[in-house]
């Protein structure tokens, strides 16, 4: 059952999916419609769960489930992956591929695929103090204080060691 994101518990579990490019306005409208419909029927073992989503920085989809009463099952997680694959196909984007790092710069969100990270650092785009998106956040509360962290505090620190 869909619940507005701002009404979800701070302890709600989240999954963050980053797109390889920003969403256009009409794409966001379509994504919102698709995800509200999905959340309204998302369940675990036939029982509805309080669920929600948010689109952040026009490039991230955050799915949330309040597991306070009922945990998300493997089948329910699989169903969320199916809807994300539909979004990928419809919009010709990549949400589910791993191996990319997103960080903020003056121009907005930048995405670097793993083989490109050294180049981004050498060209000065990605610096020790650059804010990178931490993919390991797992609850809504983490989005406020652990999602954007300095590159030097992330696994990228090895690239800045001298």
Q: Can you tell me about this structure?
A:
The protein has 162 residues and is of the alpha+beta class. The protein has 2 domains: 5-91; 100-159, no CATH class. 29% of the residues lie in helices and 25% in strands. The protein has 4 helices and 9 strands. The chain has helices at residues 25-41, 74-91, 117-122, 140-145, and strands at residues 13-18, 43-44, 47-48, 51-56, 60-65, 100-105, 108-113, 131-133, 148-150. A 3-stranded antiparallel β-sheet has the order 1-5-4, covered by helices on one side. The chain has a two-stranded antiparallel ribbon with strand order 2-3. Strands 6-7 form a two-stranded antiparallel sheet.
In what order do the strands lie side by side in the largest sheet?
1-5-4
Give the SSE order as H and E letters.
EHEEEEHEEHEHE
Q: How much of the residues is beta strand, in percent? A: 15-25%
Total strand segments: 9
Main sheet makeup: 3 strands, antiparallel
Estimated structural class: alpha+beta
User: How far apart, in Å, are the first and last alpha carbons?
Assistant: 51 Å
Shape: globular
Supply the number of structural domains: 2
Protein name: ABC transporter ATPase
């Amino acid at each position: 059952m869909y619940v507005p994101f701002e009404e979800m518990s701070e302890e709600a579990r989240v999954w963050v999916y980053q797109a390889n490019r920003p969403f256009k306005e009409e794409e966001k409208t379509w994504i919102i419609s698709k995800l509200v419909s999905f959340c309204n029927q998302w369940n675990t073992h036939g029982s509805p769960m309080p669920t929600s989503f948010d689109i952040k920085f026009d490039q991230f989809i955050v799915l949330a489930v309040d597991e306070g009463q009922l945990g998300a099952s493997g089948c329910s997680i699989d169903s969320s992956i199916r809807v994300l694959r539909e979004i990928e196909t419809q919009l010709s984007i990549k949400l589910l591929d791993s191996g990319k790092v997103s960080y903020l710069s003056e121009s907005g969100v930048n995405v670097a695929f793993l083989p490109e990270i050294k180049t981004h650092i050498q060209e000065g785009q990605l610096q020790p103090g650059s804010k990178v998106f931490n993919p390991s956040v797992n609850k809504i509360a983490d989005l406020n204080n652990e999602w954007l962290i300095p590159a030097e505090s992330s696994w990228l620190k090895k690239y800045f060691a001298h």
